[in-house]
Amino acid sequence: MKHIALVGLGVIGGTFAKAIDAHMPNTFKVTAIDKNEETLARAKEDGVIQHGEVTNQTILQDADLVIISLYPKVLKTFLETHAQDFKPGAIVTETSGIKQTMLDFIAPHIPSHVDFIFGHPMAGREKQGYNYADAAVFNKANYLITPTELNDRKNIEEFTNFLKSIGFGRVSEVTPRMHDTMIGYTSQLTHAIAVALMNSDDTSRETYKYVGDSFRDLTRIANINEYLWTELFLENKEALLESFDTFEAEMQRLKTAIQNDEVENMYDIFRQSSERRLAFEKSDSKRKD
Amino acid sequence: MKHIALVGLGVIGGTFAKAIDAHMPNTFKVTAIDKNEETLARAKEDGVIQHGEVTNQTILQDADLVIISLYPKVLKTFLETHAQDFKPGAIVTETSGIKQTMLDFIAPHIPSHVDFIFGHPMAGREKQGYNYADAAVFNKANYLITPTELNDRKNIEEFTNFLKSIGFGRVSEVTPRMHDTMIGYTSQLTHAIAVALMNSDDTSRETYKYVGDSFRDLTRIANINEYLWTELFLENKEALLESFDTFEAEMQRLKTAIQNDEVENMYDIFRQSSERRLAFEKSDSKRKD
């Protein structure tokens, strides 16, 4: 029986544990390393891991697949410390939200006896911690893999199949640079917008009386993990700031049209966004579970 | 049996018809006026109206409650044409997304023999038309009423009770000015943001591969009815542009922090938005159905 080790049992690692249990029960030996003993106990109680360690004792030496879901900086330290502990031939993967800087930093530390795959599940939650992990979050979700020239093709295919078998809908291989550019737009800019929208309220008002789902949807991710997202934003500063600029230009375009009562121009802007959203929905709906 | 007439059987009027049928079947006589004969036939087939007219023949003269869900400009024409057709003592209400300019325009045309209530259901859909009407959309939703000094208190209470009985969770009475200021922020700015976010994409990219729910949620309303929203934006220009400015200032605050690696400042910004969103969720969750 293959052994899967989860390093970090927060909301992402925890979701891996629960998704493996939900989709492929009794198929793997599943273990976890997490600094929080209570989390490990809870996951054992839930039956989603068989064994846990607060710091690695025996797990890394035995695991065939190691999924590391730690904050970028913690991940770097973990790899430096444990580079030699992995089992020869193991697949080791990380799940962080930025890729180029991770790759630059990690590449020199990758031990030659493992195959290190960089990946990113496009499925998060605004809440943090194992208790908010929910297997359903991975269902039909996108997963991005940024292969390096060191990766064994067979391992990437095996990992891709594993991801699909635990619920992911589409697994795409992209370059680290493209990953970061796109994530700066689809994920980081959207979080920045939600934060700014929430913070631009005047708290003396009873805003909750005046809202529909639009406001609820657009501010959901304003509840944000400040440590994680500060790291992600700063590690992807260039791409993110470019997204800011493009977005601001579009806001300005609409604002000018409103200021000058440019009705036809407003129709064009709204038609453009509607067409784009419909085209996006069409492509997005082709994810399979 | 009381007679409720729905003028305009688009997505809002249609939702009223379906919500009345879902929550209080066989309680009212329900009729509709809509320029589209097929829509009327469909609603009759669905059993949510008993009778329809393409232009008013007998409906307005008999209805005790008239709910008008037309575009602002069409609504104005409708009222000018039909001011004298309403039944004496009827409650007439409209559902448009702006209030001060509607009130300014409509007030002189309100016939003295009806009680005209200005209201706004905070529950829309990005899709238009009767076919997308869904009673569930009103469930637990907010409703805003902007009373005038001409309204009979008893009628406002009766209408409020009716709204709660067809699913609305919270019915608030506010001033037209406050309504428009808040809607400029909670609804119009959010739509503007979604439109700008969608339009700031580079369509040569396969964006659908790189998205999670954040992007899906933030762009849902980028699919927008260009005629309706152009009217709404321009009729509420001042409040909307103020919201743009406040939002832009918050985007700039975050951008500057990122540019200068101001980690503590970023933590503060994210903590502020998280606290605000959590406080908002707490108040918002108190809607009853």
Give a written overview of the molecule.
2 copies of one chain form a homodimer. The longest helix of chain A has 24 residues, at 176-199. Chain A is 49% helix and 13% strand. In chain A, 50% of the residues are buried. Chain A has an 8-stranded mixed β-sheet with strand order 3-2-1-4-5-6-7-8. In chain A, α7 packs across α10. The first copy, chain A, has 2 domains: 3-174, NAD(P)-binding Rossmann-like Domain (Rossmann fold), CATH 3.40.50.720; 179-284, Orthogonal Bundle (6-phosphogluconate dehydrogenase C-terminal fold), CATH 1.10.3660.10. Chain A has 11 helices and 8 strands. In chain A, β4, α4 (72-82) and β5 form a beta-alpha-beta unit. At the A-B interface, α7, α8, α9, α10 and α11 of A face α7, α8, α9, α10 and α11 of B.
Beta-strand percentage of chain A?
5-15%
N-to-C SSE string of chain A, H for helix and E for strand = EHEHEHEHEHEEHEHHHHH
Average the pLDDT over all residues of chain A and give the rounded result: 95
Largest interface: pair, residues per side: A-B, 90 and 90 residues
Low confidence ranges of chain A: none
Indicate the structural class of chain A. Answer: alpha/beta
Named at the architecture level, the CATH assignment of the largest domain in chain A is: 3-Layer(aba) Sandwich
Q: Which sheet architecture does the biggest sheet of chain A show? A: 8 strands, mixed
E-strand count of chain A: 8
Count up the helices of chain A.
Answer: 11
Helix content range of chain A: 40-55%
Side by side, the strands of the main sheet of chain A go: 3-2-1-4-5-6-7-8
CATH class of the largest domain in chain A: Alpha Beta
Number of structurally distinct domains of chain A: 2
Determine the oligomeric state from the structure: homodimer
CATH homologous superfamily title of the largest domain in chain A: NAD(P)-binding Rossmann-like Domain
**Backbone CA Rg of chain A:** 21 Å
Mass-distribution shape of chain A: elongated
CATH topology description of the largest domain in chain A = Rossmann fold
Q: How far is the first residue's CA from the last residue's CA of chain A? A: 25 Å
